[in-house]
Q: What sequence folds into this?
């Protein structure tokens, strides 16, 4: 114990209750936001994969069925 005993070395500073509650609230809010972002990103990836699969399936079906014919437009009256 070569340190000189002073009020700074002898006693640990105590955080106020308001400061501690603010830290807890901040931490919980950040965790909730992070969880929501992770959920949103997972859903986006899942939907993107499903869309790409659907588009690939439709392109395969369209090429197997032959050329896609355009619908005839009725003649306009002039």
A:
């Amino acid at each position: 114990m070569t340190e000189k005993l002073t009020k700074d070395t002898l006693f640990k500073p105590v955080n106020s209750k308001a400061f501690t509650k603010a830290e807890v609230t901040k931490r919980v809010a950040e965790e909730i936001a992070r969880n929501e972002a992770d959920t949103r990103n997972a859903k986006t990836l899942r939907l993107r994969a499903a869309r790409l699969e659907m588009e690939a399936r439709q392109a395969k079906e369209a090429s197997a069925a032959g050329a896609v014919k355009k619908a005839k437009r009725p003649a306009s009256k002039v």
Notes: The mean pLDDT is 85. The CA atoms of residues 36 and 42 lie 10 Å apart. The radius of gyration is 33 Å. The chain is about 70% helix and 0% strand.
